[in-house]
């Protein structure tokens, strides 16, 4: 009995298989020979499967993008670092060129001033300043070995600087014109009114100018050349304040220096034979 | 050896002050390191070494500053003597007392220079600027404690414990004991 049942089941399975095969073959022939459009069931299948495909492809696409962005970022970071280094190098070079241009301009002005002076002169660099705030002195890198003597005038491209007070073989000490102990003979450029220009710490003041003399704000003060210390016509400064009121017969005149002492780097020492201020 | 080391230290400070510190903008102020060092020596050394160094540094200052020779040695000599006197009778070595000590010393020194220079050169008046003086006092007050601490440490490691009698020792216990 059981053997009969098994035989029957096998026969049914065989018929089902052959029937399905025939059906698929017939479908293939019909679809190949007939029109090629999707039918309803095809479309429905496509809809369902297509949606699943779309979702999966979106996810994989995002993952791929993240990976590509990450790998690209490493390269961008390296390039960024390289570009930053290059920029730093070019910035440094730019600064060097700017400094060279500024030095060029400064030294050109110094040279022009040197050519204006009839006496021989020598340039020097400032290597030290006064450690106290009471006096205004500087140390330069030239000394008696270079022909510098005490009393020689010192100027810059902009105007007077001061006078040499002490020397050693390789260095010299200069008292600036702004020092209270400094006194230079000057005159008002427009009308040649003479006076003594004395240091006032950060500026000058001009003494011994009578009240009846015409001095106004903005007037240029230059060296008079009297005494033979400073050459004639070297700029001293500009009048910023003048007062005729008050007791005494002299005006009170304040002068802003022509030389910017806070940014002084190079000076010119005028070489004179037997300077009078010895 | 002691004097050489301290003189060298002071000279280095002076060189720094006249070159490197000059780069600082004027409104920021430039601390007078050598003055601070002289005050340190006046409170740390014994009388004779302090006076010798005061004279030496005063002479060096005369080279770099001003035109009246002898002004700085005189003033530093007076300053160090005064500091020595005060240190014997008062507790001025304590960190909390260093700030007013430095401030008062600086004002005294500045005032002395102003007065002496005016007397010696009456035709060349100096200008007393309260703004810059107060700025300098403030800067020195800020700098003095780390400065003194550093130099105390430097001198301590320079000397062994056996050579401690060359220095005025840090007083422990009875600070009012006179040696």
Can you walk through the features of this model?
The complex is a heterodimer of chains A (278) and B (179). By secondary structure, chain A is α+β, with helices and mostly antiparallel strands. Chain A folds into 3 domains: 29 residues; 78 residues; 150 residues, Thrombin, subunit H (Beta Barrel). Chain A has 2 helices and 12 strands. Chain A has a 6-stranded antiparallel beta barrel with strand order 1-2-5-4-3-12. Chain A has a 6-stranded antiparallel beta barrel with strand order 6-7-8-11-10-9. The radius of gyration of chain A is 49 Å and the shape is rod-shaped. By secondary structure, chain B is an all-alpha fold. Chain B has a single domain, classed as Arp2/3 complex 21 kDa subunit ARPC3. In chain B, 68% of the residues lie in helices and 0% in strands. Chain B has 6 helices and no strands. In chain B, 31% of the residues are buried. At the A-B interface, strand 1 of A face helix 1, helix 3 and helix 5 of B.
Using brief descriptors, characterize the structure shown.
heterodimer, A: 278 residues, alpha+beta, Thrombin, subunit H, six-stranded antiparallel β-barrel, 12 strands, 39% helix, rod-shaped, B: 179 residues, mainly alpha, Arp2/3 complex 21 kDa subunit ARPC3, 6 helices, globular
